[in-house]
Amino acid sequence: MATTDVILTLAKVFIMILPGYVLSKMNILNENHTVGMSNLITYVTYPCMVICAMQLEFSWEILNNCKYVVLVFLGVVIVAMILSKILTTVIRLPSSQSGIMAFMMVFGNTGFLGLPVLNGLFGKEAVFYGALCDSSVDLLIFSLGVTLIRQAAKGDERMGLGETLKGIINPCFVCVIIGLVLYVLQITLPDIISGPLDMLGSATSPLAMMVVGAHLGRISFREMFMSKPSYLVCLLKLLVAPAVALIFVKLLVGSGTIFGTVIVIEAAMPCAMLSVILSEYYKADVEFATKGVMLTTILSLITIPVVAIVLQLI
User: What is the rounded CA–CA span in Å between residue 213 and residue 215?
Assistant: First the structure.
């Protein structure tokens, strides 16, 4: 894909932020609406998109590539964890913010934002691999991630097995398992089912981007850009993480592969929206989480195209 095609494709995806932003500013799209839209994405459109993306012709090569996708992406997450621990210790953040900052540095918006971007750039096969990256993240978010948020909220580092499993076994994770089973067994869904699933799945991108826009419309840009710790999050999440991913990909699988590109693009995603949702749920510092998520989201409008272009040139 040419550089201009990359820019135009990403521009089409990110322009969908504008309706959500404008409607939020006009108080037409409020917080209750965005919660409902997020639930609709999580329980309906996202699973449909992933299952349809996995309706590919079986290939041992693709199946073999899956292990590299999961292992390399988990390697990137582990490096991010180590760096986040070092940085939060060095800058001496208060305990109410250090866990949240570590969460934001480690976990990206690989699902709601990552998959629409991959779908726009590279199509179904990229979504297939991207869904595996997102599932790998889910396993850690609802174990290590929740622990970080809870620690920031009340110093509680323990989390029961039942609560962990409830978080991991979510609709997004389940749909990946269903899609993989259908793929491995080569069960092709009939048109009467695949047609509606495809139409519902295609709604994921506009809905997800409108939700991002609505969140942007509710915050003060001045306060957000004044948050100094958030810039460290941006540095690690938007620049260091994709650079680490690129190094891993070069060393382990070489260049020019679609799944290697997916790993780097997913690593370049801004902070996960779940950092805000979980901070609110566990009564942690929601404002701090929101500033970090929104700042990385805004700056990713610049950094993601840059990463995508670099991948085209090397």
Answer: 5
